[in-house]
Specification:
By secondary structure, the chain is α/β, with parallel strands linked by helices. The strands form three sheets. Strands 3-4-5-2-1-6-7-11-12 form a nine-stranded mixed beta sheet, sandwiched between helices. The protein has a six-stranded parallel beta sheet with strand order 15-14-13-16-17-18, with helices on both faces. Helix 11 packs parallel to helix 12. The two termini are about 15 Å apart. Bound molecules: adenosine-5'-diphosphate and alpha-D-glucopyranose. Alpha-D-glucopyranose binds next to helix 1.
């Protein structure tokens, strides 16, 4: 099957979160199963620089305010074929792909990402003589207009050029713009309506994806349920209930080549479930690297996260003193909301040697944190899937996670019955409250006080398999139903 993934980020070229990890790994897993999966990306500077063996594939008439418009073809470092849209006026901006240096979303984002979806539809229509996708798989709102452009072609020609699947990685990011921009999208006037991409008087890219795609996926079974109710539905739960038959929850996997503590080049020592000794060396090296006291026995808690409301890190800030009072150490790698950044910076100042904070994005350091920490904190308010709890498990850092979305689907609490059944892999708390979080931290210390039990749970966590083969098969089944 010829599948084109359409996305704004792709590891290792450009990454701001888990979306990039998924787009970097899923097409590779699908190719291993015999599908011809490829990727289409906007030509941000890091993407153009990372594309290997790049050659010009097509020149296009200028659209969406681009000055020049060309399509390039090459390969990702993994070998997956990739197409990159070069539109310098729209994409040639360094740093964050969505916002300027002051964190303000670019004013032309509607045109920047309309172009991405429109080029995908051109490829389905036969832009290139040598390759034409049968199925377009869009990821998040950036690719939301893809099935709308397909529908437009179908209305004109009487047949659709390709089937479509749309994956929601996070329903909270919707790509909503003032209605006055609608004319710039080049879509038929009649698509701007309640059962189209109109959303409370504005235009919504994610709604186009949910409304017009043949099938919808999201990144865990629990989140697929949660987004059909008001609490996590972000105003779209009615539409998702209406399309429930087309919706599937497919849990993300882990790229087990990139995330392997037995061979990870970012680590100072290697280990796995059977030979865990190297983990102690990773912990000592991490404490030294970040200026934490060299205490092998101190329970080391880590956070690797976007610092946003979603991630529940206010619970970590408010619970930090109690965590430290019990003898723990805390390490935070993240960037995002200024108030959270400032809160963690002050915490580190007050507790030098016991709290270390690195503000910014640092891929190799993130690997060393999972390898060196005992516990990875993921107390999310909501979490569509979450990857850091899975990376933590693989690297022997027990997740302390809230029971929501993909966290609920991947972490099994150290309850007495799970301990007895040898299925426990982490510490799970129910309600998004300070007492529940603090109690989970106390349970982590209690478990750590029983070293043999701790090692057993850690081993169980490290033995979990979250590879991409299963999810890749599930997506192929979804594609087949979309092609119908
Ligand atoms: P989300 O996509 O909501 O941010 P995920 O858990 O799915 O959450 O994925 C986050 C990804 O981004 C993981 O690969 C995580 O290690 C990485 N990450 C987040 N913040 C940072 C950071 N500051 N430095 C390096 N990697 C980070
Ligand atoms: C989103 C979600 C996260 C998920 C990731 C990859 O960013 O917030 O939970 O793991 O996408 O699907």
């Amino acid at each position: 099957m010829r599948v084109l993934h359409i996305a704004a980020e792709c590891y290792p070229l450009l990454k701001t979160g888990g979306l990039a990890d998924v787009v970097g790994a899923l097409p590779q897993a699908q190719r291993a199963l015999g599908s011809d999966a490829r990727v289409l990306l906007p030509g941000f500077p890091a993407v153009r620089a990372g594309l290997q063996d790049a050659k010009l594939a097509a020149s296009l008439p200028v659209r969406f305010g681009s000055d020049t418009l060309t399509l390039w073809q090459g390969r990702l470092p993994s070998g997956v074929p990739a197409y990159v849209i070069d539109a310098p006026g729209l994409y040639d901006r360094t740093g964050n792909p969505y916002a300027d240096a002051d964190q303000h979303p670019y004013a032309d984002n509607h045109r920047r990402f309309a172009l991405l979806a429109w080029v995908a539809a051109q490829l389905a229509e036969g832009l290139l003589a040598d390759w034409r996708p049968q199925l377009l798989h869009g990821h998040d709102w950036h690719a939301g207009l893809t099935p709308a452009y397909l529908r437009q072609i179908a209305l004109r020609d009487g047949r659709r050029p390709a089937a479509s699947v749309f994956t929601v990685h996070n329903l909270a990011y919707q790509g909503v713009f003032p209605a006055t921009h609608y004319a710039e999208l080049g879509l038929p006037a009649e698509f701007y309506r309640l059962d189209g991409l109109e959303f409370h008087g504005q235009l919504s890219f994610i709604k186009a994806g949910l409304q017009f795609s043949d099938r919808i996926a999201t990144v865990s079974p629990s989140y697929a349920e949660e987004i059909q109710a008001a609490e996590h539905g972000c105003g779209l739960d009615g539409l998702l209930r209406y399309r429930a038959d087309a919706l599937r929850g497919i849990l993300n996997g882990v790229d087990e080549q990139v995330w392997d503590p037995a061979s990870d080049p970012a680590l100072p020592a290697h280990f796995d479930a059977e030979r865990p000794l190297g983990k102690a060396r990773c912990k000592a090296a991490l404490q030294a690297e970040l200026g934490l006291a060299a205490e092998p026995g101190a329970l080391l808690f880590g956070v690797v996260s976007r610092l946003t409301e979603q991630k529940g890190l206010n619970l970590v800030l408010a619970g930090a003193e109690a965590l430290l009072a019990q003898g723990g150490q805390l390490l935070v790698l993240g960037s995002g909301e200024p108030a959270l950044e400032e809160g963690f910076r002050q915490l580190a100042q007050r507790h030098a040697g016991r709290v270390a904070v690195r503000l910014g994005f640092d891929e190799p350091l993130s690997h060393r944190i999972f390898a060196g920490c005992d516990v990875v904190l993921v107390p999310s308010r909501f979490e569509p899937c979450g990857l850091t709890q899975m990376y933590g498990m693989r690297y022997g850092a027990l997740p302390l996670a809230r029971r929501t979305g993909g966290l609920a689907d991947t972490v099994s609490d150290v309850s007495l019955e799970n301990l007895a059944a040898h299925t426990a892999t982490g510490l799970v708390f129910e309600r998004f409250t300070q007492p529940d979080f603090d109690a989970a931290v106390r349970r982590a210390f209690a478990l750590h006080g029983k070293p043999q039990l701790w090692r057993e749970v850690r081993r169980q966590a490290m033995q979990q398999h979250f590879g991409w083969e299963g999810p890749a098969r599930d997506y192929l089944a979804l594609y087949k139903s979309a092609l119908g």
